[in-house]
Design a protein that fits this description.
By secondary structure, the chain is an alpha/beta fold. Among the domains are: 30 residues, no CATH class; 222 residues, P-loop containing nucleotide triphosphate hydrolases (Rossmann fold), CATH 3.40.50. Helix content is 28%, strand content 17%. A hairpin with a 2-residue loop joins β12 and β13.
């Protein structure tokens, strides 16, 4: 096994020292068969999801969502040597693939755009064969794009029809604005509907993610026991040393697991690994493209620029993403109260509100006050 391949063992071996002695979580058989509901499945997924693709992530029990100690010397507990390798070898080949070169369902790199659905007939780009541009029905165009809800009260109402499925979504905000909560709530929506999800964290420990979800009333431990949730903790230094391997392997693992949604928290740490702007842009582009090729709807969080709350730290991800949500603090002139506000910067192929609306982080997650104004 090469040095780069070690990233899997170290990633799934993450466990806090203060978590030693905790009782092992009991692994239960899945209550929901993901094959019964493929409404949010990409066309290019395997015929049968492999629940063992991410086996070993989570706690110390070694079951679904269980972390494995990389220093234990127990080769049988290595998810990479056993579960990951078998996932690659045994997962059925997808029937199709996603083309394109980068982000954007509208013909940009990363995913086939609307033109791929409608063809390029004599009526012009995006029009059915034999149809003229005047005969093209915009409503038919909109209805052909599958859409999903974010799972955030009030914010879903600001998006007319939902976010296009298999989009790359970016959430930009400064510290304390709720980016991680946004990502967990987005993932919980799919899990609550009986689907599958992957959470990749470069900042928080696996146990911390479980604790945060439990505080909000989200049954992430139960979802992991049902083999519908995989939480992957990657050390930023380890990721920098094995980025090429991770970029190549992660999409295959996501496909084998049958994930419907994926969250990466946060892309800013990935961007910080590169000193040269051209290298940074190229690597972030390649990494996000690999996630889009996995066929899942992906959400990445990003730190806001210190000078501009509407821009990410390096000003890259908002151009690659199909949808951008900005979370920020709003301080009135009298400085009596600081409020949180959300704005939808863009969503490709979807109409959305241009208003800036207040929101709160409650014990049930983010809640946007659609009918309220900032001041």
């Amino acid at each position: 096994m090469s040095g780069d391949d070690d990233w899997f063992e170290r990633a799934v071996g993450e466990a806090d020292d203060d978590a030693e002695g905790d009782e092992e979580r009991e692994t239960t058989e899945p209550d929901v068969d993901p094959s019964d509901d493929d409404s949010e499945r990409p066309d290019a997924e395997p015929d049968t999801p492999d629940p063992d693709a991410f086996e070993g992530f989570g706690d110390e029990s070694g079951g679904s969502g269980a972390a494995v100690d990389p220093d234990s010397g127990d080769d049988d507990g290595s998810p990479f040597e056993e579960d990951f390798a078998s996932a690659f070898q045994n997962a059925p080949d997808p029937e199709g693939g996603f083309g394109g070169g980068g982000p954007g369902p509208g013909g940009g790199p990363g995913e086939a755009g609307p033109e791929a659905d409608f063809g390029g007939g004599s009526g012009g780009p995006g029009a059915p064969d034999g149809a003229s541009a005047e005969d093209f029905d915009e409503n038919e165009f909109e209805s052909a794009i599958e859409r999903i809800d974010l799972g955030i009260d009030g914010l879903d109402d600001m998006i007319l029809g939902g976010v296009p499925k298999r989009s790359l979504i970016s959430v930009i905000g400064s510290a304390g604005t709720g980016k991680t909560t946004f990502g967990l709530q987005f993932l919980n929506r799919a899990l609550a509907d009986g689907k599958r999800g992957v959470y990749v964290t470069l900042e928080e420990s696996t146990d911390r993610i479980y604790d945060t979800a439990e505080e909000k009333g989200w049954s992430f431990v139960e979802y992991a026991d049902e083999e519908r949730l995989a939480i992957v903790h990657l050390d930023p230094v380890e990721m920098a040393n094995s980025l090429s391997s991770i970029r190549n392997d992660l999409p295959d693992l996501v496909k084998a697991f049958g994930a419907d949604r994926l969250v990466l928290d946060s892309v800013s740490l990935l961007e910080m690994m590169y000193d040269h702007p051209s290298d940074r842009r190229s690597e972030v582009y390649q990494f996000t493209r690999s996630l889009k090729e996995a066929g899942v709807t992906t959400l990445v969080t990003s730190e806001a620029s210190g000078d501009n709350p509407y821009s990410s730290r390096y000003g890259i991800i908002e151009y690659l993403a199909d949808a951008v949500f900005v979370l920020q603090y709003v301080r009135p002139s009298d400085f009596q109260e600081t409020r949180l506000a959300v704005e939808i910067q863009k969503i490709r192929d979807a109409n959305h509100s241009r208003e800036t609306k207040p929101y709160e982080i409650t014990n049930e997650g983010l809640s946007v006050y659609r009918q309220a104004n900032i001041f």
